[in-house]
User: What shape does this take?
Amino acid sequence: MANTFFRFKQFVVHQQHAAMKVTTDACVFGAWVAQQLQKENKTFVNALDIGAGTGLLSLMVAQKNSLQIDAVEIDNSAAHQARNNFAQSPWYPSLQLVEGDITTCPLKKEYDCIFSNPPFYEGELQSPSAARNVAHHSQQLKLEALLHIISERLNEKGIFFLLLPYKRKSEVERLLQQAALHIYTMVDVQPSVTHAPFRILVKGGRLEKGQKEKETFCIKDADGQYTPAFVQLLKDYYLYL
Assistant: This one.
């Protein structure tokens, strides 16, 4: 049975009522988004978290960045969990949980930053659990629709971030082009140095900035230990790093 909570250095994520639990790749993504925002030579006023789940990503970003975050979650149980996780965190005043469908919710303003760990799977075998299907499968929000929303809600100089399966890499590049969105950085994430990539991290925006950066990130080394890159990225979050 999965743990009912995941304790980080500065906050706790309770997850017993959410179908999508805390995962290593989501933690890598959250820490990477927070790091990338810090590196930008600009002030970010607000951000939109699409498909907030437990609120993990918003909490990780809020730990390193001072901005107002609107987190949207369609599942009632997950939304309740995220709202409570926000309320117990040090950044509660800057975190707003909005329960509902991102395609119909009343958040019509533009954002400086949008990040999302969307449902991965389209047209694949589903779980008997309806909640897990919402969390893992793209029946409610397909990738093409998500990119359209990002294109609509992101301000002209804003930045977006996505975590997606590596096997959808070519499809993602094609759909981003159709949505008039440009890739700035794409990171291939490997479980270890001996395994092929299984996730991609995407950073982009509406403005074209020339050739995209390509990077590789490995979670573990050949001995099964966390790599120095992983430790550096997650040391401010994980208790035992």
Observations:
- The radius of gyration is 17 Å.
